[in-house]
Amino acid sequence: MADSKHRRPIIIANWKLNGTQAFVSDLLTGIHQQWGGVHKAEVVVCPAHVHLAQAANEALAYSNVAVGAQDCSQFEEGAYTGDVSAEMLHDLGCQYVIVGHSERRRFHHESDAQIARKFDLVHQAVMTPILCVGESPEQRQAGKTLAVIKRQVTAAIEGCGIEKMARCIVAYEPLWAVGTGITATPEQAQEVHEFIRTLLGDIGQCVRIVYGGSVKPDSAQTLFAMPDIDGALVGKAALDADSFIQICRAAE
Ligand code: PGA
Question: Annotated catalytic residue: which of 87, 110, 173, 193?
Answer without folding.
Answer: 173
